[in-house]
## 1
Amino acid sequence: MLVVEVSEMAPIAVALCLASALSYAAAAVLQERLADRSTTVLLRTSSWWVAIGLNGGGAALHVVALRYGPLSLVQPLGVITLVLAVALGAWTTRRAVTRSEWHGIGLTVAGLGGIMVLAGSAGDIGVLSGGQLIGLLLVAAALLTALGGWSTVPGASGLWAAAAAGVAFGVSSALTQTVAVHISGQGIGALRHPFVALAAIAIGVLAGVGLFFAQRSYRAGLAAPVAVVALANPVAAATIGLVLLGERIVGGTVGIAMAGLSAFAAVLGVALLSRVRADETPTEATGRLQAELAEADAATNPGG
């Protein structure tokens, strides 16, 4: 396993993660407003392409962050996207963030913060070997197929799709770290190595799959899907780090127990956020839908 020393570059990784989270949050707000549009309509909607651009910008910043910090540090910071997305969503619809939303955000952020503190590394950035890469892709394909199948069951929660998106993004981050480290050490010629090239291709495929599932998940609202993606993403990435890259849970058995409690708190936060839209009154829901439809129509027909 190839490793790269991590020195005092963590603050750079954190700053890049903050910028990435802001870009992702803005994209999520746009995507949630277009959640009920068909693919054909989306392709003709300018705000959809803006969201794609913002997602691309967030991904690029995330890639650079992985060069300056380990996966277990960079990935959990994505939870900031949740706070920013809910705040931006409320601001753009001229409403206040509700108490339930703040409580859900607080639990989710606290839980993921605990995971971030407890998930450490041996001071190195590890990358996947060829055998590990193949095994990871097979497991990821099976898991995404299962989650995607559950999300299409009639009456199923859109949060299954959000979980699939989070897993796709988390695995993509692990692969991105591997490719970034190889290119940093060997230059662009590293892509001539078969397993590095395979990882690069898989990154693009997983990013597209994650975007597809995320768009589908926003039919369940904004806060809950973003929270599920924010939870599934670092859990998937941390699992890869712990199992394959030599990272570890700080504190031994006690640390594992605390990580479990942190994960439980994050799940409670997601559950609370998933109730926010369900608690809307008919008048609130109608007003929200009318505003979203008007904005989507205006974006589709700017001259109208």
## 2
Amino acid sequence: MMRLSATFTVDLLPGEDLPAADGRYDLSKTWTGDLEGTSSGLMLTSGDPVTGSAGYIALERFEGVLDGRRGTVTFHQLGTMADGQPTLEYVIAPGSGSGELTGLQGTLSIERIDDDGIHHVSLDLV
């Protein structure tokens, strides 16, 4: 296993509502560190985050350089919050890699989020 570190900033823009979700957002990220590049994707939400109970799913395509290798991968996210307690599964979608990232597998963990919105993450590759 190999562990990489990176940061990202994210922009969320509300998108057109869909019948299967309470909210839809287009997202874009800028990555720095062991992941250098950009990603864009789609997030769907449901529930009531104000009361501490909600969930979301998201797919985002990363394009850039990961530990010196160039290509694309898709990240798949599944987040829930029940009674204010969050859980997050954040993985590289199997079979989504291209270029030098073909066949890449791994999980991403958010280590912390700074007050200015910078997300610090670790990526464990298998």
## 3
Amino acid sequence: MALRGDVRSLTQTREAVTQTLADHESRLRGLERWRYALPLAAITSLGTLIAALVKAGGA
């Protein structure tokens, strides 16, 4: 009987680990999609706009 309990416990632990890994994989894929979907040109132009606004506000 103790062996059955150990096997059940291991099965539940494996399922929990599998779910956690799937969740992490999903989060990483989402971050990668966001990162590569945002072109470098958009980031550069946004930085330039902010710098121009700061300069205009300080003048």
## 4
Amino acid sequence: MAIRPPMLQRGDTIGLVTPGSPLDANIINARVQYLRDMGFNIVFGRHVYSYEGIVAAPAQQRAEDVMNMFRDPSVKMILTTRGGTGVQTILPYLDFEVIKENPKIISGYSDITVLLNSLYLFSNLITFHSLMLIDFRLETPVYNFNQFFEATSTLTSPRIIQNPLNMPLKSLVPGNVTGPIVGGNMTSLVNTLGTPYEINTQGKILFLEETHSPSNTTFRYLTQLLMAGKFQDCLGIIMGECTNCLVSYGKTYENLINDLLVPIGKPLIVNLATGHGFYKAAIPIGANVNLNSTDNTLTVLETTVT
């Protein structure tokens, strides 16, 4: 069983880090005020506001911000400001043993995917494919906050991950499997292939989502994951949305799933609200879940915090 971090409660301290691309200072300040209005205390990594072009700061400095948050006993949760790109460059500078000894909630999506899955892989820590700092604002759907706080601030077990009412899950291959869930943004996961931080799908349930990738690019990603054995190794497959993804060569995202993944024969559901979509389910990376693609249910079988 993976390590569960201590739960988040109002009045706790949240540590902010920018492990990938920079975020505008005005946006950071507005979102921080929203968190403070919710009753949380905020501490800042040294490079939260930094700007080095594509990334916020050199990799070692961004990694040190993350490590300092894990070492700081006053910090209950580590919240990433945004994803963007470059998160994988901090991985060689992380001390996974220190992280394992100081488990904390860490949340994000997009390029944060590589950090979440690496923390589970090397520190055996449950992490949360859920909200980032940019999501803490009035316009965020209540669904997203309910999902986030149910996963990080309650001992609810089992927890059924339900899509919004107007967005049903759909089964393409029926089945019923149970195992740890891994995955996230497709682009980010493909970028780990051939590195020490390559995602391990053996005996796992794999979920994927994507954004701003035309069908021909998504075809490349799915094919690369297939050739790397990631779909063959996994127990089941959950496909989230491909938001703002253009159709190319007359093939849609849905066509690609039917052409490439359905023939594998693994339990498969599609349309999970997560990642870059307007609605964001909270997916606990490393937690045991049941995927029942006969009944179209996804259930987290254990508490994800203590």
